[in-house]
């Protein structure tokens, strides 16, 4: 199992709604990819420019394939990344096991 969490900080408050819409579409598409167990997008209630991606993939190969798929190459890289600062956090599951 591969757990990949990413914190995104929107650079300009004017872009929050656009980023939210793009991330929702990215999550929808990513969720349909082979090996995707979980792909969730959270928007902070206290830090309005912060988003959190919570991803779970069956294998490292599935995550690598995701980075070549439409959601990543046509939405995330060209449309989201220019609007945010990105802080990836590959993670280990502590609980539940």
Summarize the structure.
With 97 residues, the chain is an alpha+beta fold.
The CATH level-2 architecture is identified as 2-Layer Sandwich
Rg from Cα: 13 Å
Estimate the global geometry from the Cα principal axes: globular
Strand content: 25-35%
CATH level 1 class label = Alpha Beta
The secondary-structure class comes to: alpha+beta
Query: How many individual domains?
Result: 1
Mean pLDDT over all positions: 97
Could you please describe the fold and organization of this structure?
With 97 residues, this protein is an alpha+beta fold. It has a single domain, classed as 2-Layer Sandwich (Alpha-Beta Plaits). Strands 2-3-1-4 form a 4-stranded antiparallel beta sheet. Helix 1 runs antiparallel to helix 3. The mean pLDDT is 97.
Write the layout of secondary structure elements.
Blueprint: E1 2-10, H1 16-31, E2 36-43, E3 50-57, H2 60-66, H3 70-80, E4 84-91
Antiparallel strand pairs: 1-3, 1-4, 2-3
Helix pairs in contact: 1-3
Structure keywords:
97 residues, globular, 4-stranded antiparallel beta sheet, 35% helix, alpha+beta, 3 helices, Alpha-Beta Plaits
């Amino acid at each position: 199992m591969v757990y990949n969490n990413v914190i995104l900080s929107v650079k300009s408050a004017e872009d929050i709604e656009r980023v939210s819409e793009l991330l929702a579409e990215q999550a929808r598409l990513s969720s349909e990819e082979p090996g995707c167990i979980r792909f969730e997008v959270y928007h902070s209630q206290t830090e309005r420019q912060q988003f959190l991606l919570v991803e779970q993939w069956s294998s490292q190969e599935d995550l690598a394939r995701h980075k070549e798929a439409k959601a990543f190459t046509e939405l995330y890289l060209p449309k989201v990344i220019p609007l945010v600062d990105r802080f990836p956090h590959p993670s280990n599951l502590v609980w539940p096991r």
